[in-house]
């Protein structure tokens, strides 16, 4: 589908790539990098601006709103995945098996919600041994990167930044074991959990060894999601002794190729492990949720220029209307001006935010952080 933007791109004197790299390194910029993290699926049917223009997903919405462009590349995890399967249906729910083999309940009407998983494919070390042999093989031909295609997608003269994806050391392990399963397994089967983390790390290293030096990536990305509103779901010692050493191995590869910005997507209260993330080489939080943590300025003040944040615009404030939106954005001005901070909604924008208030927010962002 061809998407026609509904508004002009923010005025620019730099390419998106130049702007992103300068902003993340506290160098002068023409204006703030303009991006958003996306929307709940319901927004595409409930907001007239999406519905009437045929916008059905976040990729189309990025083009529709004419945001600055960025990309990320990489996937080093399970292969082959499980076939998605509907096992049972009730009046309001479906029991499904997802691509990672977990059995869970999802809403039948398709509204956005976190699935409730009831059974993991890995409950014992024998289960993991079998799955590792079948779906986490290092010599799987599918893990060989098409370098010619990568060069075509991301030429040296591109005008947008590209991240090399460094996957997940513990977040995807949590996905496989479930929240409760990981909590128990760290004590019942610690060697198994560490081997799962090591396997994740090795697969990422194998991927990086193929692509680094071939493509001049601008930054690195990752995904963890192991925190909730009271902190991480693993112990501090586990994270320090098992996860951080693997981060350091990946970080050495990145730094050897000039990549010094590494973001991770981790919701919840990251403060108890933030020092450890940074020790491991992760120095940017994304999309940085406010309500379960703190105003982004608190951490930027505490850690100075060692930390970057992307996100951190409180979605709860977006739902309160123009005055709350204006007040919150004003609180972000000094951090945008300092650099190392790119503001956008602190996760997918929910449908309780009115369309007109969201458009006001986009306009106000441009006036405050653009070139107007």
Written description of the protein model:
This protein has 372 residues and is an alpha/beta fold. Helices cover 42% and strands 12% of the residues. It has two domains: 16-78 and 121-369, Alpha-Beta Barrel (TIM Barrel); 83-120, no CATH class. Strands 2-3-4-5 form a four-stranded antiparallel beta sheet, with no helix packed on it. The protein has a four-stranded parallel beta sheet with strand order 10-11-12-13. A three-stranded parallel beta sheet has the order 1-6-7, with no helix packed on it. The two termini are 32 Å apart.
- Kindly name the structural category: alpha/beta
Instruction: Identify the quaternary structure here.
Output: single chain
Tell me the name of the CATH class of the largest domain. Alpha Beta
What do the pLDDT scores average to?
95
């Amino acid at each position: 589908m061809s998407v026609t933007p509904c508004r002009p791109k923010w005025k620019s004197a730099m390419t998106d790539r130049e702007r992103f790299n300068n902003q993340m390194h506290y160098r002068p910029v023409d204006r703030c990098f303009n991006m958003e993290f996306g929307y709940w699926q319901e927004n595409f049917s409930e907001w007239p601006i999406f519905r009437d223009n045929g916008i059905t997903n976040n990729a189309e919405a990025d083009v529709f709103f004419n945001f600055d462009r960025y990309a990320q590349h990489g996937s080093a995890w399970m292969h082959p995945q499980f076939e998605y399967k509907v096992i049972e249906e009730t009046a309001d729910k479906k029991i499904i098996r997802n691509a990672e083999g977990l059995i869970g309940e999802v809403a039948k009407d398709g509204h956005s919600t976190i699935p409730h998983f009831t059974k993991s494919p890995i409950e014992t070390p024998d289960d993991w041994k079998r799955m590792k042999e079948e779906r986490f093989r290092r010599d799987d031909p599918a893990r060989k990167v098409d370098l010619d295609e990568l060069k075509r997608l991301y030429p040296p003269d591109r005008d947008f930044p590209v991240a090399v994806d460094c996957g997940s050391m513990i977040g995807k392990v949590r996905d496989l074991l479930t929240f409760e399963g990981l909590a128990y397994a760290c004590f019942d089967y610690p060697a198994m959990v560490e081997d799962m983390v090591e396997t994740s790390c090795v697969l990422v290293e194998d991927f990086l060894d193929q692509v680094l030096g071939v493509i001049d990536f601008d930054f690195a990305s990752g995904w963890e999601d192991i925190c909730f509103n009271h902190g991480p779901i693993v112990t501090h010692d586990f994270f320090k002794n098992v996860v951080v050493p693997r981060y350091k191995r990946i970080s050495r590869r990145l730094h050897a190729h000039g990549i010094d910005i590494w973001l991770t997507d981790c919701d919840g209260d990251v403060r108890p492990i933030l020092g450890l993330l940074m020790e491991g080489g992760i120095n940017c939080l994304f999309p940085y949720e406010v309500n379960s943590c703190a105003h982004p300025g608190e951490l930027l003040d505490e850690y100075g220029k060692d930390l970057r944040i992307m996100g951190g615009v409180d979605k709860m404030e977006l739902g309160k209307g123009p005055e709350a939106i204006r007040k919150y954005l004003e609180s972000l001005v000094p951090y945008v001006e300092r650099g190392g901070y790119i503001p956008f909604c602190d996760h997918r924008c929910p449908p309780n935010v009115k369309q007109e208030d969201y458009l006001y927010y986009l306009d106000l962002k441009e006036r405050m952080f653009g070139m107007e």
